[in-house]
Amino acid sequence: MAREPEKGLSLIGFVLICLKMVTPEIPTIDQAYSKISNSITVEWATVPGATSYLLTAADGDTVIETMVANSPGTVTGLKAATLYQITIRSISAAGRSQASPPKQAKTVLAAPILEVSSPSPESILVQWEAVYMATGFSVSIMQANGLGRIWKENTTNTSLTFSNLDAGTLYTVKAYAWNANGIPGDDSTCNQRTSPHAPADIQVSFDSGALKASVSWTPTEGAFNYTVMALSGPSELSCSTSVSSCSVSSLQCGTEYLISVLASNDAGFSKSSSAVRLKTVACAPARVTVQEDPPGHLSVAWSSVDLGDYYVAFVKSDDGLEVHCNTSLTLCHFLSECGFTYFISVFAYNKAGQSPLGDVFNYTTAPCCPSDINPVLVSSDRVEIVWSPVRGAELYETKAIAGYSVVECNDTAPACTLSALECDTKYNVTVYSFSEVRGSNMSCTSRLITTAPCSPEIENISKDAFSTIHVRWRAANDDAVYTVTAQGEKGLYRCSSKGAACAMGGLPCGSVFSVTAVAETEVGRSLPSYSVPLETVPCCPAGLTITQVTQSVINVSWTFETVAQTYMTVLESHTGQSKCHTHQSHCLLGCITCGINYTVALKAISASGLTSDCAYQSYFSSACCPLGVKLYRLGPNGIRIHWQVSRGSANYSTDLYGSKGIFTCAPRAGLSFCDVTEIPCGDVYTVMVSPVAETGLKLTFCPKKIYSVTCSGSTLGMGKSFFRG
């Protein structure tokens, strides 16, 4: 029970603290005033324990609140010249107090919005719109650098002009409005520079080559930039600069300009300076014409131009040589040469200088004519000519005329080949030089050129009994010498004549020739005629040899240097004839009768059938082989061989061949036997009795017989005989 009073006292203390925290003190406004048109400043006594204050401004339409930390405080964002009810509340940790009793305050007038300009170098015009609730305005002006006097004017108007100012000088303008109570409002401040004076002492120089004017002047106070104007009728050129000189480009030739200069700064332009007159150079003369009449003389004419005092015409050839003509007229004369291109320009002159370069005209004279036409090749249907290149020629036209026949060739080279011409014909040949600009020079002279003679035509080739070749041809040329050529593997043979035939001899046998004919005059040689083949008779072989092969067969052989196609051998006697046709170098003839005299003939035959009767020779066939050959014993070691002669007389030789040796015997003339002594017995012998030719050659084609020689008795055993070949 003793603790209950303590609880009651604590509760009472807590209630008292809470009551104290919810009742902050209300501030009291001392004064409220406006110095700026969009705000009101409030002053009050500080409230203990307040951490901040809430200012409220109300005009019946809007309420604006501003939180401030202490006195004084300013409410912003208000309307100018407007009456506001101002209240304040204190704010602490305990909360916000009640609003203070209101206090009225009115915002001051708004600042006028200025528009400033400099209509002249000595004045500044200040303009503004009307300000709400304003009854008058105060405007002052002074140099921005603070030097000099201050001008101040009061007015109820909305514009004011300050005069007698310094040109090109920066001024500061200040203005404000006041209300019926004379309370000034916000002020406006701005800077304005007066415009500059026009530049003086204008100097102009002219560059005739670049067609530009260089203009200079004395700088003027307060000018930031300068503009140079060049006026000529509707044409207007200008240049701008920040220094005291400027160049106006792209001036027109033959034109008079008025040159003036304007100075400018941020206030605007000055008045134009006094204009200076400028005459440019004359324009280049136009309608230039060039004529060459007569050849070698050029006339250059042109039209007159404005501001031109006199003219100079320049003529330069493409080899670099230049001449000129100075005249006050519009015509000049010059000498010219063929094949040149002349470059022509005309200038007009006045005190300003030379006119610009106009069109450069070129005139090309007719190309020169070739003078050294030289035929380097003349044939029956073609002429090749050359000449030295001539000045100005781009193409050469060559014409060859003979009666109604005209042959042409065109080429860029100084040479031409005229083809399809008539042989042995006189042509007038002219080379015309041509250029694309001027065409052909038709004054070139011609030269007479005769083509080479026509080719002859071989009509006939014949051979006489003396193996001389006669050639005949058809001639169609004047004063021509004809040469016939026979050409083959064994050489070249010729004959010549001024007529229509010639003869040549000594051609080798067994040869094939190609025969052609050419005609030759002092101009040249014709083309060869068509060739005609010529074949001489085949050559006869040398060294005819006759060999008896068998009793009825002989071999005829020969040697040769030139091979014929075939050979024919004929063996003939009173008993008959034997022939052999071969392409070899020998021939076998059969059915020969032994011991008879024959005539041997040999013929060489070519592939075309030409025949040479080559050799006639007598030949006596070999003696006939003996008949009835027998052996007889002559004592113990001797043998006699005996035979019978079939026809005629002949020498014979006997040979015995055995294993113990060879034994030979030859009978005396007229006998039909011979003896062999000292022949070994007991052997088998092969016995052959052969006729012997007049040359001593033993013929070996007679039949052989085999005999057995025993060593007892007197008879010989005879075996069978055999023939060889």
Provide an overview of this structure.
It is built from one helix and 61 strands. Strands 3, 4, 6, 7 and 8 form a five-stranded antiparallel β-sheet that branches. Strands 18, 19, 21, 22 and 23 form a five-stranded antiparallel β-sheet that branches. A hairpin with a 4-residue loop joins strand 16 (200-207) and strand 17 (212-218). The protein is mainly beta and 725 residues long. Mean pLDDT is 87; it is low at 1-20 and 717-725.
Structural class: mainly beta
Our count of helices gives 1
Count of β-strands? 61
| Range of strand content | over 45%
User: Tell me, what's the shape?
Assistant: elongated
Distance between the termini: 194 Å
Radius of gyration (CA) equals 76 Å
Q: What do the pLDDT scores average to? A: 87
Helix content: under 10%
Query: Runs with pLDDT <50, length 5+?
Result: 1-20, 717-725
Largest sheet: 5 strands, antiparallel
Organism: Chinchilla lanigera
Keywords: Signal
Pfam family, one: fn3
Domain Fibronectin type-III: 23-110, 111-197, 198-286, 369-454
